[in-house]
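It is worth pausing here to work through a concrete case rather than discussing structure prediction in the abstract. The textbook approach is simple: state the sequence, then state the predicted structure, then interpret. We follow exactly that order.
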Amino acid sequence: MDFNIGFLNKKIENLFPKAQTELKAQTAELKAKLKQKKINPLPSSEMIALGKKIDSLSIPSPYLKTLKSELSEAIALWQEDENAPNSLVVLGSPIESFPQIFKEVLADWEQQEQNSLHLKSLSWSNRPADYSSIKFQLSQEINSCDNVNQDNSRQVVFIIPDLTWCFLRCVGGLDAIKYLQDLLFKDCSKFWLIGCNTSSWAYLDIICNFSHYFKQTFYLPELKDIELKEWLIPVSETIEFEFSHNQDKQDDDQKFNNEDEQNWESSSQQSFFKHLALISLGLSHVASRLWLLSLGIEEEEDKSNEEDDQDNEENDSYPKIVLQKIVLPDLPELTKDDRYLLFSLCLHGQMTLSELALSLGEEQIKVQNQVQILCNSSVVEHKNKLLKLNPAYFPQLKKDLTSNNFFFQGDK
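Step two, the predicted structure:
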C-alpha cells in the first residue's frame, strides 16, 4: 500500500482545522524571527555626540506657547485685581529641566510683551551646599529687588526656576519653604513664578499645606507624536537612518489620508512616534533618550541558506543605521532601600551624595554603596558630582514606586 503524505496532510487539515491554523501562524512567526536582522548598538562616540545635540535642543514649542500664554494671563489679572493670585507654579515630571524652560520662555515672553515689569530670577544653579543657609541666601536674593518696588506698584516678578533648590528633606531642611509661605501671605506686591516637580509638590503639600498658599498651578503639556517628531528634527536630520525591518509592520501598508501625508513621511515613521509618545508618557526627556537608545547598526544577515531572496532588498548597503522598535529598559531588582533612595531623587531632582544621605538619614558610605549598584545598572546617573535619575527608566520607575505606595499625588 502506497503511503501518501499529501493525502495524510489533507486528512489532518480536515480533522483539525483549528490546530492547522495555529500551526501555520506559529510557523509564520518563527520564519519572521529567523529573518530578523542583527542590530548592534551605535558606537559610544556617536551616542555621546548625538546626546550632546539633544541636550542643545530648544524646549518643545508646546511648552513655550502654552506657558507664555498662561503667564501673560496670570500677571495681567494680578496687576488688575488686587485679590487675584500673585503666583504661578509650573508643574512637571521629576526629570524636567525647569531652569532651561524658564530661561527660554521668559526671554521670548519679555521680548514679545515689551512691558515695564522687573524680572528677578534666583541666581543659583543648584541647591546651596549648606542646606541650613538656604533661607538666608533666599532672603538676600528676594530683598535685593525691594528697592525696585518701593511704591508697591506690582511691577516685580520673582522667579524660582526650581523649587527643589530651596529645601532638603531633613531636620531644618524646610525653613526656606516656610519663609516663602509667610512672605507670600504678607506681601502681594510681587508675583512669584516657580518651577516644581510633581513629587516635590505632593510632599510639600502634605507637610506644609503648600497648595493653600500657591493656588494657581499649570502643568506642562504632554507631547503628542507629531510634536515629538518635530522637536527632534534638528538632531534626526543630522544622520542618515531608516526604520528597521524588525519593527512590527501591521500598519506599514495602510494608505495615508491627506492629513497623514502632510505630517509623516511613511506609516513606519508615524507608527514609531505614536508608540514613542505612548511609552514616554509624553515627556520630552524620556522620549529623546528612548529615541537615542533605539538607534542601532543593522548588519546583513546570512543569505546562504535562503530559498528566495526576492523580499530581502538585495541592493541595501550594510552596515546601516536604523531606528528599531522602542522598548522600555527593564528595572533591576529593587530593594525597599533602593526605592527610598530613588524616590528621594524624584523628590529633590539632582543631588550630591551627601545631600542624598542626609535626606535618607543614613551614613554616607552605605548610601554610596547603593548608588554605585544603581549606577552600574544605569538607573541612576552620576555627572559633575551630582546624582540624578536616568530619564529612560522613569516610566518603569514611576510605575514601580506607585505600586509600592510611593505616590505621585501631584500628577495630573
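Step three, interpretation. The chain has three domains: 39-55+223-301+312-323, 61-219, 336-403. The two ends are 75 Å apart (CA to CA).
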